[in-house]
Structures are given as C-alpha cells and as structure tokens.
C-alpha cells in the first residue's frame, strides 16, 4: 500500500499528469468535490486527505490504476527513443534555454496571463514529449495574475490570492552542498537576490526566480508579485531579473545551453549578460557580439509598434549604471543596441530591437504576422527590401493532449492509440476519421455540449455563492434560470480571450434587432457564451465586459447569452470542448496568431473568424467559416460595420442552415462534413509538436 501512496504522491510532483487523462481521473476520483474546489491542484487535494484514507482506498482496483499510471509516467521519463534523440541529438546533449515572462501550464500554477503564456506552456510540453533537453526560465509570481469577478454592474474587479510554494509541485534549487541556490542581479545601485525554484513538466524543467526573500528590501521583493503588474519601473526590474538573472542561474547550474530562445522581447536583457560573459573571456567587442548572436533566437508576438516594450534613456541610465560598470560596456553602446534610430540613441530603448540585434534568427508567429513584422521593422535594415528583412515565421500551435478533455480523449482512443497520432499528418488524421461514423461524431458533439452545460450550471452556482453571498437572491435565481435554459440542441457559439479592445468582443451585438432575431428564432435558435479578462489598467476592455454582461441581462437574451467569470486555463478547456462554433473578431492584422480556435478542433468545434493570425493559412472554405476576406478600412467605424455585416450574413446564410439541416436520421450531414474537414486539415498542422519540430530544425539547430 505504501508503494501506491508513494507513487500517487510522486505523480503530483510533475505536471506530466496535466496532459494524461487517466492521471487526472485518479485525482478526481479521490474526491470530485475537492478536486474542483482546489482548482484541480493535486498537491492541495492530497493535503485534505488523511493517510488512513489513502491507505484504505489505495487497495484494490484504484491502487492498480495508480500503479499502471505510475508505470507509464516512469516509462515516459526514461524513454530514450525520442524524436530529438533521432533527429536533433545536439539539443539532447545541450539544453535549449527558453525564456518567457509567463508560462500557462495548468490552471493550478498561476504564472500566466494569456496567450503568450499558454503558448510557452504548450511549447514546453511538446519539447518534453519530443525528448528535447529543455529548460524554461520565468519568475515565481507570488500573486500570479488576478482572479476576476464582476460587480453588480458587470464591472471587473480584481483580487490577488496568494499562491504558496507549499501548495505547488515546486522544489527549491540547491547547490552542491545542499544550500539554497541564490543568484543576484544589479538593479540601479542595489544588488537584488533571487532564490531559484524548479518545476518538473514531464522531462522538461521550468526554473522560477523569486525575489521574495529576506535578503531583499521590500520594493525588490515585489518584483515577483504579479504577472505584468506595476509601472515601467517594475517592468524593467522584472525584465532584468528574467533575462540577466536567468542567464546567471543557468551558469551557476553549470548548464551550457546550445541556444537561448527569447519568447517575446521581455527577456532580451539576457543578451547583455551573455555579452558580459564573452567580454570576461577577453574577446573583442565584435567577436563578443558575434558569439552571442550565434546562440540566440527571438520570437516576436506583437504586430503593433505601440505594443513593444520601450524604456526611456533616463530609466535605462538609472537602472543599468552600476551593472554596466561591472561588465565593461559603456552606456552609449548599450543604448545603441536598443535604438530604433541609430542617429538618436538617447531616444527610447526598445527591447525588440535589442533582441533583433543580438539573435541569429527571428520569427513571427503566423505567416501573416511574419509579413507584418518584416514591414514593421524594415527601417532597422535600410539596405534591405521588406522581403529580405530577417524575420521569418513559425505558426503557433497547441499541445493536443493538453487540450483534449477526458471525454474527447476516450472517444478518439476507440480508434487510435493517442490523439497525437492525428497530429502527425493529414493522412493519419484521415485514416482515423475513416473509422468514425457521422452518428458517432454527432454523439460526441452532444455529449460534450451536455457536459459543458452541466459545468456552467455548477460554475455559476459557485460564482454566485462565493462572490455575491450578500447579494440579493433574485439575482442568483435569475442567473440560474439563464443557464437552465441553455440547451444542447441549440447551436452554441463561444468567445473567450483577453479583452484587449482590438479583439472586439461586443461586435456581435452591433445590430441588436438582427441578433435578437437570430437568437430567438423559434426553429433555429442560437446561444452564446463569453469569458475573458481585461488587463487591470484597461478600462476600455472592462467596459466591453460590462456591455456584454448588460446585454446578457436583457430579457430577450436571458438564458441565451452568458458571461462566465474568471477565464483561465480550466475554463478555456471547458469552453473549447463544449461549443459548436468558436468566434474570433480581431481587427486584422492585430492578432499575431491566436491559438484558442486551434483548441476546439479535436472536439468537433468549427472556427468562425476574421482572416487574421493563423486562420488565413488554415481556412480552405470547407473547414470552418470566415468573416470577410481580409478587407481593411481606414476608419474603425467602417471596419466594424463591414465585419459585423459579414458576420451576420455568414451566420444567417451558412452557419445556421448547415447546423440545423438534418437528414432522415436527424444528423446534420453538411455540418459533420465540415467537422471532418477541420480535423483532417487543422489538427495535423496547428499543434505544438509540429511547431517545436520546426523551431528545432530551423532555429535551434540552424539547419535552414
Ligand atoms: C488559449 C488561451 C488564450 C489565447 O487565446 P487567443 O484566442 O489566442 O487570444 C488566452 N487565455 C487562455 C486562458 C487560453 O487558454
């Protein structure tokens, strides 16, 4: 018995379980209530269950299941015949060091804000699956990103529950003598210390730097408080810790990365510490730059100039003065590395420019975003035409097994060993689909929608009990009655993402009468679920949330439009599996890639999106729906009217008929044909196994 308990505890210490359906079932089976209440955190779950209980319950079949899963887990860790071993041995011998300000791995580890973090988390998991020696670097944010709740008026409120190290599967990193490993960085005139933690994610390791230690003054402890919290000063401090601190940590661990990957410009200061290491070896400045460049790669994610991190020269001077004197780089040289205009080096210091200057390759995150980035940064390469600006692209994907819910996973396992099989190639996906009947796909859709509606009912009940305990009961009853009228028979649209205004969440409400007619059709109705957080400083985004909440309370939309509070990875997983159609309405070309729509595909969801981000590459006319054809207008109003008109007409003339037209067995043949087409064409391309292989061969190994 003791063995089984030890195995169970070991499973909680590596986030491998987060993409293994059977492992998750074990935790859920221990106590479905505690599992849900503790945000699906097995470390916390086990804290609530006594050893006596575990001993009693680990006998018999449940214990056998633990042993079986544990055996699979250890086999996974010890697997030698991996993709990387066979295709990229250089990055098995030496690690890839991947720096990101956020990682979205699981909802129980709150060190992410949105898409950038989710991408980093999925990258980490695929790197593990493929056998790459992979080390992630980030910060340990004590408060993480905020928890969202809405007040009576639908206005977003943020709270920041503490996340305690003892509730997470993290360990302190220690040195050879077993002492806590501490690194330090210079910020302004101070030396700031950081403790290092590590989190195991399959075969990969994520290191987290933490300034919440007694050695630091309190304002430096706050560097590791919130994801993207605070002002510019906080931001530069976080970025110094991430970039410079991260390199120092790897150095102290004795790791010799084959490549340093900057996921967005936040971590670009890492190049300075690498330069310092080169200069200490006594090489010339030019040689030092070349050596650093030969080991760094950079991924940019931001298609608008204003979105890139920039710091004033005063702030740079104040913050870097002491550091520069210790490494032997002068201030002008530093400013030159980050200057957009070489004739004005005392303007703003741009992190993206630093990253571009000191990496051997750079890329955007979709084909369109690659083009946009080349145009945006062409002025840095005046001698080159736009087409030769050295920024390529690798389109983002999602980690398939993390994003398939338990039901969907079991569904596909009737026909193939793993959902990853369907990610391999078009032919492989077709071969699996050939074994599945239309009736079975339709039954999958119904089951998933029923699960989702049941989830919403519980979720809204909790939401109201926990957050509005002193509010009026009628509000609670009203909300409940709203979910009670959600029906799996009804076409369901989902929209969930960060409420950045360019994503235009309320666009579908632009013509109230027209939407009212669609939603309340007596024969072919529609229901819509929204979720998403606005950045705490983004009042315009918060206003969008409020508008949607107000719409959802109109009598016409009651029970048909719902806003779910506190969007996070857990809610995302529920939504992408439950809805029929995933809506995306960004202002083109502001969505660098987007990934949430890719998560719906294996559940039989269809994308309905502006041709932006990944969608223009994937859309073939038969595997989902497009809003417009990439038309751009100068004025916002004009763009919104045009896109809204297109959206309504596609809904009315394509989506609704395809969903509701049934054959003699009540199956929507056209709809299911589209689902098949989506699975066959999207699943094999838009996954992180394909993406990480591309990074490995074209960027990490430089085998272009
Ligand atoms: C996938 C995901 C995102 C990214 O969504 P986009 O549509 O690509 O913006 C953001 N937040 C969460 C919680 C996600 O799961």
Describe this structure in words.
This protein is globular. The protein is α/β, with parallel strands linked by helices and 704 residues long. Strands 1, 2, 5, 6, 7, 8, 9, 10, 13 and 14 form a ten-stranded mixed sheet that branches. A six-stranded parallel sheet has the order 17-16-15-18-19-20, with helices on both faces. Strand 13 (361-364), helix 17 and strand 14 (392-393) form a beta-alpha-beta unit. The longest helix is centred in the middle third of the chain and has 30 residues, at 438-467. It has three domains: 2-76, no CATH class; 98-396 and 692-700, Rossmann fold (3-Layer(aba) Sandwich); 415-684, Rossmann fold. Residues 114-115, 118, 497-498, 567-569, 572, 594-596 line the site of pyridoxal-5'-phosphate. Pyridoxal-5'-phosphate binds at residues 114-115, 118, 497-498, 567-569, 572, 594-596.
